[in-house]
Amino acid sequence: MKKKIVITGATGFTGLHACQYFVDKGYEVIGISRSSFSISKVHAETCDLLNKASISEILNKHKPNFCLHLAGVNSVPHSWEDPISTIEANVLGTLYLLEAIRSSVPSCRTVIVTSALSGKDHPYGVSKQLQQNLVMDWTHLFDLQVMVAKPCNLIGPGTSPGFVSFLAKRIIHRENTGDVSAINISHLGNKREFLDVRDAISAYEVLLKKGHHNKTYEIGSGKMTTLLEIADIFQTFTKEKLTLLETAASPEKSPNVMDSKLLQELHWQKKYPLEISIQQTLTFYRSIR
User: Fold this and answer.
1) Going by C-beta distance under 8 Å and a sequence separation of 6 or more, which residues neighbour residue 166?
2) pLDDT reported for residue 289
3) pLDDT of res. 76
4) What are the distances in angstroms from CA 268 to CA 15, 61, 135?
């Protein structure tokens, strides 16, 4: 019998990749999104996670073995515009999901995906820190089989609001229109840690199968890359000469590299080189122009 997995946020950047990944792996996939959708070989369920009754009904109906929680607000700018809805989506939505699991399928092994941006720098970071604390406390109090995954910046083919997608779209615009205006970038010396979304999803599967509940697993590439280095890689895949304009006087303070040791102890390894992820991102945007 196929193992069942519920994936929230099924129509998002990571969610679409996750649905395809687990379908290909032979799972019975139940995707949840706030809006109606259709994905091949995925049982589509429309549900706002702030609707407690609805999410409980779905879990009670399907009785999943696994749950991958990707839904929520994933935007720092939006969190400044509407901090309350950000807290509601990321904290209350997670709480209602955990309660539905507790009441309907307490043995369901669950990965809650937070963010490397957890912290106090913006409302989004606060929401993800509150989410992580909630998961740890709820898991301990009610002995749930729940783990936290904390990935770095995820990239790869697909529609994403991140820097790599931003630059890919600007390059496509230049290729299509001949526009040679400068591309504004905060500072070329700013550093980020990038990981292919497909590597992150393979890590989530490892955690669902072998992770230890009530633990937080950081997921990263182990390397910081400057925005200039990203632009230089893009330059090798386009004939357009990129002109970059820095809008900040100095680089940001570099964040710490994610510590993936706990995950690597479970025999996870990344597969996609940065150059391949960037090339395939550019290829994706060229295919939809």
Assistant:
1) none
2) 67
3) 82
4) 20, 32, 23
Q: What is the distance between the alpha carbons of residues 260 and 110, in angstroms, rounded to a whole number? A: 19
Task: For residue 7, give every residue at least 6 positions away whose Cβ sits within 8 Å of its Cβ, in sequence order, or none.
Answer: 15, 18, 19, 22, 29, 30, 31, 32, 67, 68, 70
C-alpha pair distances (Å), 259 with each of 112, 149, 178, 198, 216: 18, 12, 42, 18, 11
The pLDDT of residue 252 is 87
Query: What residues make up the domain containing 27?
Result: 1-151
Per-residue pLDDT at 83 exceeds 80: yes
Contact 22, 2 (CB under 8 A): no
Please report, for the domain that includes residue 4, its CATH number: 3.40.50.720
Give domain status of residue 262, yes or no. no
**What is the Cα–Cα distance from 138 to 39, expressed in whole angstroms?**
32
Question: In the sheet that 109-113 helps form, which strands lie side by side, from edge to edge?
Answer: 42-46, 28-33, 4-8, 66-69, 109-113, 146-151, 216-219
pTM of the complete model = 0.95
